[in-house]
Amino acid sequence: MATVVPPLPLVPLHFGTNLTAPSSAVPSGRDTFSFPLPLSVQTWAVQMVVFHAVGLLFEAMDHVPALRSSKVRATRKSQYMHLLPNVLRNQILVLLPFMFLMEVFGLAFVGPSLHPIRFLVNLPLMALGHEIIQYVGHRYILHAPNVFLMKFLRHSVHHSTRASSAISACYMSPIDFFIEIGCPYLVPLSLVGGGGSGRFFHFLIAGAGAIGGLYEHSGYDFAVSFRPKFENLGEKPMSEQEKETAYKLLERPSFVTTFLADFLDNRAHLEHHMRGYVSFSDGFGSPSILDTLLRTKWDLSDRRRADVEREWARQHRDE
Ligand SMILES: [Zn+2]
Ligand SMILES: [Zn+2]
């Protein structure tokens, strides 16, 4: 007599929690409804929407004459369509699989939703972890003075954009993208416990990271409106009114203008793209702790240049 095998019950797979646990083992506090996509893929999709919407907004801003005074690194023509295929390749073929594998292996995007205190503690920890991994990879691997590594990693592709177009934040070779974008995001995430399965934490981290990267590569520095302006050699002479405003800002800085001038200051990464030997941390939104401690902050660049000259001289002497 043939054995009748009962059909398997159709249980929806709850990605975003523990992929190996039965649904009855889902801890309390997780989101009460599920999307048909794994949480890592949802987070990637949110980052794509934020990245490309804000990237297009920056592109549109280039056509607004009133904003030209804040565009400190301009190009003759738009680079947007030239940069887009490389950017999409990196986001689809490098970032998406990396994020999904983190979830499959239970390193991130799994577990219970974060307790509010853990949520708040994880944010600065993520910022610090991002800073350390970004700095080490960027300075000691991508900018290592080694001809073989330079040719292999091709960090020059990213530097070729001069940080003058927002979406150039992701314009780079795939291996460079893995080191500079993937690892500083996903390694700290796994080290803080993976961020749990709550959507808000992951969407916030991914969205904020996208906006920061876009701004620091946009060629805009919105702090110029809040910083005292002084004449540089070769520039159009300032009017008496402009000089008066600059002195007033310098002598009587208000809390609001000082805060905005510091918060919106976008010079660090712009200087990195120009000089290559300063500001290896992310520019905007980064505490720049390592750049400060290791004396590579962009506004210490004269000293940094002297260090580099000394190192080149030493290597030359030792040859
Ligand atoms: Zn850059
Ligand atoms: Zn670089």
From TrEMBL:
One GO MF term attached to the UniProt entry: oxidoreductase activity
Domain Fatty acid hydroxylase: 125-225
Membrane-spanning intervals of the chain: 44-66, 87-110
Keywords noted in UniProt: Membrane, Transmembrane, Transmembrane helix
Subcellular location, principal: membrane
Compartments reported by the entry: Membrane
Organism (species): Cutaneotrichosporon cavernicola
Name by which UniProt lists this protein: Fatty acid hydroxylase domain-containing protein
Any one Gene Ontology BP term: lipid biosynthetic process
